[in-house]
Amino acid sequence: MIVLAYALAAVIGLSLGLMGGGGSILTVPIFVYVLGFAAKPAIAMSLPVVGATSLVGALGHWRAGNLDVKVGLVFGVIAMVGSYVGARLAVFFSGAAQLTILAVVMLAAAVSMLRGSRGGDATATDAGAEPDAVLPLAKLLPVGLAVGVLTGIVGIGGGFLIVPALVLLGRVPMKQAIGTSLLVIAMNSASGFAGYFGTVEIPWGFLTAFTAVAIAGILVGTYLVRFVAASALKRGFALVLLVIGGLMLYQNRGVVLGGAPSRASESRT
């Protein structure tokens, strides 16, 4: 089982490197359903994994010239505020409720990826785009806060929301948007973890090894991004999200139907 967990950690890193997001949304399900952690520790543990992995990936994209530092820092600071608030608000949600929200987000991400892949990932329209001289903060603010709050509550990086926001609102070309999203995710995750710190017990030894494998994956993904068509990857990954999100929603159906929370979300340690 632990070998499978590390293999999935590599998948998380690969996805972050290739698509600027996506893989991080699987971190919590891996911790809960593969490794048997309760929902709240799993969400807290996912944040340093996603944050550290994304930071390494962002550095790789920066060296390749695919990172807009100015846009990333502005968007990241906005998201950090939302992430810390979300982490503090998480105490008002049961573990089952958090997993249910995550399942809905996974299904929404899958739909977004499928629609984006059919549209060619927006590369045809934004390839020559230039960042605006003045960032549209009024447009970026609500998106950044929303991504941050989701990160704090359910432990996602939010790349599937950040990348299109950077392209459509920040006028960042697609390749730069992928790299820039990793910087935002790293900042976002750090703030969210600060909100959880001290409230749950963290197995630092295991978490360090899991993060190291994910970092190895993102280094490979960052290298391969120039050779791989992201649209095909997104279609396949979206189907995986549809299956896992649907199963999670069924597993925690008691939240919607008013029944008892699932043992996977509440009783595991």
Strand content: under 5%
Q: Residue ranges: pLDDT <50 for 5 or more in a row?
A: 121-128
Helix content bin: over 70%
What's the number of extended β-strand segments? 0
In round numbers, the mean pLDDT is 81
Shape: globular
Q: How big is the Rg?
A: 17 Å
Largest sheet geometry: none
Order of helices and strands: HHHHHHHHHHHHH
Quickly count the domains. Answer: 1
How far apart, in Å, are the first and last alpha carbons? 16 Å
Number of helices, where a helix is a run of at least 4 consecutive DSSP H or I residues: 13
Structural class: mainly alpha
Give an overview of the whole structure:
- The protein is mostly helical and 269 residues long.
- The protein has one domain.
- Helix content is 75%, strand content 0%.
- The chain is globular.
- About 3% of the residues have low confidence.
Jot down its keywords.
mainly alpha, 75% helix, 0% strand, 269 residues
Compile the SSE list and pairings:
Elements lengths: L1 H18 L7 H8 L4 H25 L5 H21 L5 H24 L4 H4 L10 H18 L4 H10 L5 H23 L7 H21 L5 H22 L1 H5 L5 H4 L3
